[in-house]
Model the fold of this input.
Amino acid sequence: MDVITLVKNFSREALKFVSAGAPIVEQDEYERRLNICNTCEHIKGNKCGKCGCTMSVKCKWGTAACPIDKWGPVKAK
Done:
């Protein structure tokens, strides 16, 4: 994945996250997401092979979603 695509993907996710008030998921949801990612065929170390995001960060963001729909954003309470 090229650097421009990585920057675009991160910028899009960061804008959603900040615009929503920077919601962080609960620890159990973070662990659930990370476990899904860690068993995914597209994981490359701590990075997603589809979007290029660092999963230890992306899995904490309440607005984030898996690019292949294995998990989605957390609904606001």
Notes: The radius of gyration is 12 Å.
